[in-house]
Write a structure and sequence with these properties.
five-stranded mixed beta sheet, 10 helices, globular, 2 domains, 5 strands, 45% helix, alpha/beta
């Protein structure tokens, strides 16, 4: 993995008391002419050695090759052959897939959802990022290194109501928040601060305001897509997870915008 990305992630894991213990290669035949080789990093908790993270690196375009589960099956097979593997690790192991995409590239949300919903072998999380988000996040952490740990700095950033408001208004222009909130979402063991959350509007209030702003805009009349809103409401969403709500909201309405072009 590239140095900056690996450093940020390993700093977080280190503060969560996970130790980079091993790495091994897994090769998967995509078809007769192409294969995919991934390096698997093994991080084991020093506080509870049955808790494990496996971490791999892949391009956004490669996610579709992971959907069928064969690469993950081979990964699990090799992991279970390791001398340090114990049976109780199997139910406490998570796979973090670190997936890079270019700034103007469409993130393969379809493959992400299929991979994360697959119930076999491990819990799976796909962390998507681009170079702009990575570089800006790293620079901000360096500038503020004297103010706290990596985790506390990330906590402060994503719970800052001003930063959240800017991200909510236009997440494309907020690469640091996008990088951090994606990382926090995909590391299920990341500790969340709660003290400041009382200042953040509820998700329902946010959505209501978004619709009211659309209706109140003075420019040409806007067709509010009621069916899209109903589809969103019917989805299985964790409304306490801001990142998931925004992703699924954008997934519905961005795809519909594409269909109308």
């Amino acid at each position: 993995m590239e140095g900056l990305k690996m450093k940020i992630i390993l700093d977080v894991f280190n503060e969560l008391h996970f130790v980079l213990t091993d790495e091994f290669l897994v090769e998967y035949a995509i078809n007769e002419n192409n294969s995919m080789v991934v390096n698997v990093n093994v991080l084991i908790s020093s506080e509870n050695d049955s808790q494990v993270f496996l971490m791999i690196d892949c391009e956004n375009a490669q996610l579709k090759n992971i959907v069928d589960g064969m690469l993950i099956k081979e990964m699990a097979f090799q992991f279970r052959k390791k001398e340090y593997h114990r049976a109780e690790m199997d139910r406490n192991t998570a796979l973090l897939i670190v997936s890079k995409h270019s700034t103007d590239e469409y993130v393969d949300f379809s493959s992400k959802v299929k991979i994360e919903d697959d119930p076999y072998y491990f819990k799976k999380y796909v962390f998507s990022y681009d170079e702009i988000g990575l570089e800006n996040a790293n620079n901000w952490l360096i500038e503020n290194v004297q103010k706290g740990t990596t985790i506390s700095l990330i906590q402060d950033y994503i719970t800052d109501t001003r930063q959240f408001a800017k991200y909510k208004e236009n997440n494309i222009n907020e690469p640091i928040y996008t990088f951090f909130i994606e990382l926090v979402t995909k590391l299920h063991c990341f500790p969340m601060k709660t003290a400041e959350t009382k200042n953040i509007n509820s998700i329902n209030y946010f959505l209501k305001n978004e619709l009211e702003k659309l209706r109140a805009k003075p420019r040409k009349s806007i067709d509010i897509n009621q069916s899209g809103v109903e589809t969103f409401v019917d989805m299985d969403i964790d409304y306490g997870n801001i990142k998931e709500v925004c992703e699924k909201w954008n997934l519905i309405f961005n795809s519909e915008s594409e269909d109308k072009k």
